[in-house]
Amino acid sequence: ITCSETPTVSQLVSKPHNPSLDEDGINLEEIREFAKNFKIRRLSLGLTQTQVGQALTATEGPAYSQSAICRFEKLDITPKSAQKLKPVLEKWLNEAELRNQEGQQNLMEFVGGEPSKKRKRRTSFTPQAIVALNAYFEKNPLPTGQEITEIAKELNYDREVVRVWFCNRRQTLKNTSKLNVFQIP
Amino acid sequence: ITCSETPTVSQLVSKPHNPSLDEDGINLEEIREFAKNFKIRRLSLGLTQTQVGQALTATEGPAYSQSAICRFEKLDITPKSAQKLKPVLEKWLNEAELRNQEGQQNLMEFVGGEPSKKRKRRTSFTPQAIVALNAYFEKNPLPTGQEITEIAKELNYDREVVRVWFCNRRQTLKNTSKLNVFQIP
DNA sequence: AGCATAAATAATAA
DNA sequence: TTATTATTTATGCT
User: Fold this and answer.
1) Which stretches does DSSP call E strand in A109-165?
2) Does the CA dihedral B18-B20-B21-B26 come out positive or negative?
3) Chain segment B155-176, per-residue pLDDT in tens
4) For a designed S-S bond to B152, which of A51, A109, B37, B162 qualifies (C-beta 3.0 to 4.6 A apart)?
5) Protein-contacted positions of strand C (CB under 7 Å)
6) Which residues neighbour B64 within 8 Å (Cβ) at sequence distance 6 or greater?
């Protein structure tokens, strides 16, 4: 590929006979090593690129988008940019790991995100509905078509959803032998 | 929450005063530690849950889906299942790490995937195509497989590209408007 | 340099 | 398990 732009770190280190120091005295091999390591350490902390970017933006210094973190990890940036970003990321990550040792809560506070942000469920039964369904199940685990229709109407859920709930519920029971041992009184 | 089903490992280890050995003599704490470690080691090798599942299925023994690997990592399985799966994953991962040391090529061969699988190039839709897609979306945001095929043919785009466009479009809409037409309150 | 969004991956209802 | 949604990553564009 003919490309007259400044090459990325990724392109430079992939060349077999390239010196590890480029003409500006930047150690490309070191950057590559750090980038790989950074990703693993980030994942070990359970953080996303978005979280890192937002956290860095919150600190003093320049702002970083998710894209910027992504491009650093992929080394899809120029050596000069990488050289500039590396110490920033290194410092931040060390701090984050320190906080993490003090507890998950500290890390989340440091990162600045809502610590309790949960993945949204595709669809879900309300707690009341689950209680009601379990009550119906206790009375009769194998309701007839008519009964399913009535339960669905009562709880204001789709009939098919209720039918499948009973199927899955029975299935679980079938695979389980120690059901009552774990039951909360 | 009242739940009479067999609890998952995740539920059991989260209880403060729970013994780390359950009544079957399964070391829950050890399983939790392994699951966490497994994920990090998997990511370090650059493997997806899908790849692990497929690779395990290719070996002798039972088949495992991406979902199964996901549930193990999240500990969203019963202690009995976890106990059964743990040694299988451990053995496989050790082997995979060994292959990886011998070179990336060896790992990919072991995993069984196409080693050169590249990410698909990002598609740029023409403005006309976007207008047309939005019109289709207004009429029906959830087209059937048959309809997707027809739209793709009509607009002269790859079927998969059109399918994903609808997925992402629904996603964007969901994030934008609080009004969720698909979900039961 | 970063927004918008396509593609890929993880999680989960069916 | 499968089929689909939820979430994250990657990239075309400017």
Assistant:
1) none
2) positive
3) 888 888 898 898 888 877 766 5
4) B162
5) 1-14
6) B52, B53, B56, B57, B85
